[in-house]
């Protein structure tokens, strides 16, 4: 029930499309040009207009060169995107140097390249760009041309802001770069993790459904091959009767008959795997639980399955891949972390069907209980018991991570309408407890359960 990935957890693909950066830079070029023109003429402030427009034109030239030499769909490497964003920071620094430095209200635009990097590039690149942005902000805070202002304005003919005030602006800008960069990176990283984990879940479900479909194909093949094998059996018997006892072909005919019987036995086995309306597509919950726990009984751990004494109203559940995988993964984790015993308890009422899986291991650390089932929780936080026991009679243990297994199991079970709760057993007992509860109308397809508000049974939703 475990899932292996081709690359380690935490190693993600980063990158930006070139078209994205080109479009953003065209937007910056348009905004910068508009701001320079408005400040110079409608507002009447004196700017080094030639130098400012030259800096903006350099960005426009770079955009044209990138567009001509590269297709827009190209995805940049981490380093290539970093160089382009670093240029944007330097270009903004040059414009701010010409227009007042940190006293220019547009200095906050240093945040933009860092924010873009935080959402799509690696943490290392984001940190380097943040340092570059802070350094450029510091330099234009020390060296800059005077802030353009009309004579007699609120700041006087040649406004000079206090050094302490400029230092405060730089500090605020540096803190904003760090805080917003980290926040944007975490949000983007969680989105990437969730997207990859959901993709892994879909792959697991598709694999399980594919295996289920193979069962149906095997049964169909067995049905179709039954008639020709029966014909071959009749012909073999007729040939055996027609041959004399001392015929040299007698041994070959007997061998052929044995092989035909062997083929028919194999086909009878394949027929038991049938799908559609086959008997094993609809099983009581007790049989479902036996199917789930059977692969884990030979690992030195006692697995006890408990059911109510009165089983007259036992739910009948569709044997679908998602539900079996989810329950199997929960049981597997309990077996992995148990010391000696795992208990699987099923109870039902007219309203709910509940399965509880408990073990006698060390249990969940309280600080991780709320995050269990989230994608890429890389450490379960409790110890996996290593068997057999050591010479002193105590089980040795080693830490073990959860990866995506529990996330996939939780997702598949929740798709079936279940609610899951991860708890520790109440002292003096020790160990973990996982409770899975369904509204009975969602899983019971026996026809005896009350209708749950017209909800579609889980069989229809997970096997469609």
Q: Care to describe what's here?
A:
By secondary structure, the protein is of the alpha+beta class. It has 2 domains: 1-16 and 76-275, no CATH class; 279-462, Heat Shock Protein 90. 53% of the residues lie in helices and 11% in strands. The protein has helices at 18-40, 49-69, 78-98, 111-120, 123-142, 163-242, 250-271, 285-293, 321-337, 366-369, 405-415, 440-443, 458-462; strands spanning 282-284, 302-306, 316-318, 341-348, 352-359, 383-386, 396-399, 419-424, 432-439. The strands form 3 sheets. It has a 5-stranded mixed β-sheet. Strands 1-3 form a two-stranded antiparallel sheet. A two-stranded antiparallel ribbon has the order 6-7. Strand 8 and strand 9 (432-439) form a beta hairpin. Helix 4 (111-120) packs parallel to helix 6. The two termini are 22 Å apart.
Helix and strand topology:
Elements: H1 18-40, H2 49-69, H3 78-98, H4 111-120, H5 123-142, H6 163-242, H7 250-271, E1 282-284, H8 285-293, E2 302-306, E3 316-318, H9 321-337, E4 341-348, E5 352-359, H10 366-369, E6 383-386, E7 396-399, H11 405-415, E8 419-424, E9 432-439, H12 440-443, H13 458-462
Parallel strand pairs: 2-4
Antiparallel strand pairs: 1-3, 4-5, 5-9, 6-7, 8-9
Helix pairs in contact: 1-2, 2-3, 3-4, 3-5, 4-5, 4-6, 5-6, 6-7, 6-11, 8-9, 9-11
